[in-house]
Write a structure and sequence with these properties.
Structural class: alpha+beta
Number of strands: 34
Radius of gyration: 38 Å
Distance between the termini: 77 Å
Shape: elongated
CATH class of the largest domain: Alpha Beta
Low-confidence stretches: 31-41
Helix content: 25-40%
Number of helices: 16
CATH topology of the largest domain: Rossmann fold
Number of domains: 5
Largest sheet: 6 strands, mixed
Strand content: 25-35%
Length: 602
């Protein structure tokens, strides 16, 4: 077995399928219509045994101009391609379009194959080869080997086998989630639903669970085949057939994706790098286009970012707004076509499938972000998540590592943490100004504005972090700015002194304080919070007096096991009317515990 996918490309009637038959012995034009017309209409797949014994997957694509969509589906995932050019006709329109598609899809390697070499003399064959070299000079494959072949005389077939045998195994990484765009789906009797495709990434174990996109329906794998042989796992770069349970044939077909659960999202807005072909016309505005990704085609609009129009040959940052979901990840390649008149316009690389609509006022900022993403700076994904942050799983999958600041179970970029910090500072300052007698703000009251983007656990984690770094002070359930303290006016200070004096003089009887001031309640709360007083059954008690009572009761329990109401009255000199509220206060503070009518040590 080999994780290597080869393919054909080229103009219609330039001998692609005949070449595949010469290499493999298999005729992939199996449909009656294909045999009658002598052209390939659907994708064909066949294993190819290489000279070193490796078995590669070979994909034969149609060359007709009306079947470019099918060609793109087949070219998706190729590791190398045989660009077939007739030695008789030379370079033709679909040769150029297929070459453009292959460049846009980033196919790593190309072999130029001159077909029908037996129909021309050596001089014409060399002229055709020169034309091919000129065509490839400005492509990603300027040094591609050129092999002259004939399927009639078998000329060059073994030389082509040798060139193919020298190709390295697929360079796709085995890491990341499993993803496979489906190019065929059918029902096999006794097995059920079967889907086939080229595995783009990751590894899928037989018996594993998968997710089908768009939609996110779950299914389970109960059999994997590569080149018709059962295997225990499907890996990146292989042509695989998956037998799926838990899903019907009506729910799958060409254009759907089979992935690891949670690997992708159904994106409708995507940031991209877009290359407009030199042969494409000037486009202005937000043109309606067809977007081809994997084996899927969706309609949408292309919005240039930072530029007004698309000049031929331009390379820009842009945003695709799609009419249907497109399950994709950063680094995926796509092709853009015009529906009418049909033509390939360009294509590019997906940068951010988790983006939101970018308004024109943010274009300059967005271009900087997308330039960073194109340069490999994945921290941008965390920054773009803003105050929503990312789960740790999302952070690892998008950014490649756990970066940023952890608050609760989520991660946030520095800018988001700074926004939380500023919102907390402003909120506390406003509350301090509105409630000058309050020693602090209830934590939940401070959880407002931008801070509501944090769940409660994350918010409390943020407060603890801010307190550790000295930006706020925490006091029980309240929070305050570090330099905030209550400052009494002269009148309030006089009132405080008067109340404390009255409460102290009242002793265990407590003092009755009338509410003559509009800020009476706030002042009482302040003094209670400071421990200077407490209010029991409507009467004000001096803090030190209650501390004295607490010590007296604890001393009582040194020699006694229970405290009866009568004993408490004797201890404090109080009547039943004032003694019972004091006993209840002692219960509430854990000094005593009620058992029947008596108290025991708390």
């Amino acid at each position: 077995m080999s994780d290597l996918v080869l393919g054909t490309a080229g103009h219609v009637d330039h001998g692609k399928t005949s070449l595949v038959r010469a290499l493999t012995g298999v005729d992939l034009d199996r449909l009656p219509e294909e045999r009658a017309r002598g052209i390939t209409i659907v994708l064909g797949f066949v294993p190819l045994v290489l000279p070193d014994g490796r078995v590669a997957g070979l994909v034969d694509v149609p060359g007709h101009e009306k079947l470019v969509r099918t060609m793109v589906s087949g070219a998706t995932g190729m590791d190398a391609v045989m660009l077939c050019v007739s030695a008789v006709e030379g370079v033709m329109p679909q040769t150029r379009e297929h070459l453009a598609v292959l460049r846009l899809l980033g196919v790593p390697r190309l072999i130029a194959v001159q077909t029908m070499a037996d129909l021309v003399d050596d001089e014409l064959l060399e002229l055709a080869a020169d034309e091919l070299r000129e065509l490839l000079a400005d492509s990603p494959w300027p040094d591609a080997p050129i092999v002259a072949t004939s399927t009639v005389s078998a000329r060059g077939i073994e030389s082509l086998r040798a060139v193919l045998g020298a190709l390295p195994t697929s360079a796709r990484g085995g890491g990341g989630p499993f993803r496979m765009p489906v190019d065929r789906a059918f029902v096999r009797r006794g097995f059920g639903t079967v889907v086939t495709g080229t595995v783009w990434g990751g590894r899928l174990q037989d018996g594993g669970e998968v997710e089908v996109y768009p939609g996110g329906q779950r299914a389970r794998v109960r059999g994997i085949q590569v080149h018709g042989r059962a295997v225990t796992a499907g890996t990146a770069g292989s042509r695989a057939a998956l037998n799926l349970t838990g899903i019907e044939i009506d729910d799958v077909g060409r254009g759907i994706w089979v992935t690891s659960p949670g690997a992708v999202e159904d994106s409708r807005v995507i940031d991209v790098t877009y290359d407009h072909l030199e042969s494409s016309p000037l486009l202005v505005g937000e043109p309606g286009v067809l977007v081809l990704h994997g084996t899927r085609e969706v309609s949408g609009r292309l919005y240039p970012i930072g530029v007004e129009g698309l000049e031929p040959g331009a390379s820009i940052r842009g945003q695709l707004h799609l009419g249907e979901p497109l399950p994709c990840l950063p680094g995926d390649r796509f092709v853009v076509r015009r529906a009418s008149p049909a033509a390939t316009l360009g294509g590019g690389v997906i940068l951010d499938p988790w983006t939101t609509v970018i308004r024109k006022r943010r274009h300059a900022e967005a271009v900087v972000e997308l330039d960073r993403l194109a340069g490999g700076d994945r921290l941008v994904y965390l920054e773009r998540a803003g105050t929503l942050g990312l789960t740790e799983g999302q952070c690892v999958s998008r950014c490649g590592a756990l970066v940023g600041t952890r608050l609760g179970e989520r991660r946030y970029a520095d800018a988001a943490v700074a926004a939380f910090r500023e919102a907390l500072r402003e909120g506390l300052a406003e509350r301090h100004a509105a409630e000058p007698l309050s020693p602090g703000v209830n934590r939940k009251v401070a959880w407002v504005g931008a801070l509501r983007a944090l769940d409660e656990r994350s918010f409390l984690s943020f407060l603890e972090r801010e307190a550790t770094e000295g930006r706020v002070r925490l006091d029980g359930g309240r929070v305050r700015l570090p330099d905030w303290q209550v400052s009494l006016t002269v009148e309030q200070a006089v009132w405080r002194a008067t109340v404390l004096a009255l409460a102290e003089a009242a002793g265990y009887d407590g003092a009755e304080i009338t509410a003559e001031r509009p800020d009476h309640e706030a002042l009482v709360f302040l003094l209670r919070d400071r421990g200077e007083i407490d209010v029991i059954a409507g009467r004000v008690y001096f803090g030190p007096v209650l501390a004295q009572l607490t010590e007296a009761v604890r001393g009582y329990f040194v020699d006694q096991r229970t405290l009866e109401p009568a004993s408490f009255k004797a201890l404090t000199g109080q009547s039943r009317r004032t003694a019972i509220p004091l006993l209840e206060w002692l219960d509430a503070h854990g000094v005593t515990r009620r058992v029947g009518d008596a108290r025991i040590k708390g």
